[in-house]
């Protein structure tokens, strides 16, 4: 197994991949939000030049679970965003489906095999940062600098 390949996961009883192990973890800060990232693929660890988080996280901490789904082909499409109460759901075609729980500050994102590192770093990470920042109360909201959502066709 390559060092950068996703962790293998084949459970016939978990068709929705709800219990995929995400053993890789990192944390970073983007503006006023702190983010804890759990993933099953090294290429899904954000590498943007973001300030590392100190030992004490602020009240604005988000948990992201990023799952590489190697069975789903295709490239990113334009985002379709659905807001419903405390939940935001975004689909970018078959290779990307995510949900953000605003109250719990948790984001779960399934990313297809053909979404490369460049599309992930240049488009998805800034998009997820902006989505997370926008979910804060208006008094705490801050625009995350460096968002480049024009890279969707990358």
Task: Walk me through the structure.
The protein is mostly beta strands. It has one domain. It is 12% helix and 30% strand. It has 1 helix and 7 strands. The protein has a 7-stranded mixed β-sheet with strand order 1-2-3-7-6-5-4. The protein is globular, with a radius of gyration of 15 Å.
Write the layout of secondary structure elements.
Blueprint: E1 24-30, E2 33-39, E3 61-69, E4 80-84, E5 87-91, E6 96-101, E7 106-112, H1 117-134
Parallel strand pairs: 2-3, 3-7
Antiparallel strand pairs: 1-2, 4-5, 5-6, 6-7
**What is the percentage of strand-forming residues?**
25-35%
Q: How many domains would you count in the coordinates?
A: 1
Shape: globular
Topology order in helix (H) and strand (E) letters: EEEEEEEH
Give a quick set of tags describing it.
154 residues, seven-stranded mixed β-sheet, mainly beta
Nutshell version of this structure?
12% of the residues lie in helices and 30% in strands. It is mainly β and 154 residues long. It has one domain (24-153).
């Amino acid at each position: 197994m390559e060092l950068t390949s996703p962790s293998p996961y084949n459970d016939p009883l978990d068709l929705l991949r709800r219990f995929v192990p995400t053993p890789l973890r990192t944390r970073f800060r983007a503006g006023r939000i702190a983010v804890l990232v759990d993933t099953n693929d090294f290429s899904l660890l954000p590498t943007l030049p973001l300030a590392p988080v100190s030992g004490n996280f602020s009240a604005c901490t988000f948990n992201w679970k990023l799952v590489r789904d190697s069975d789903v082909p295709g490239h990113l499409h334009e985002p379709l965003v659905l807001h419903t109460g405390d939940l935001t759901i975004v689909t970018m075609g078959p290779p990307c489906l995510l949900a953000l729980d605003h109250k719990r500050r948790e984001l779960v994102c399934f990313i297809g095999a053909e979404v490369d590192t460049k599309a992930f770093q240049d488009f998805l990470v800034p998009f997820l940062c902006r989505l997370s920042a926008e979910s804060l109360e208006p008094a705490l909201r801050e625009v995350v600098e460096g968002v480049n959502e024009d890279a969707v066709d990358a």
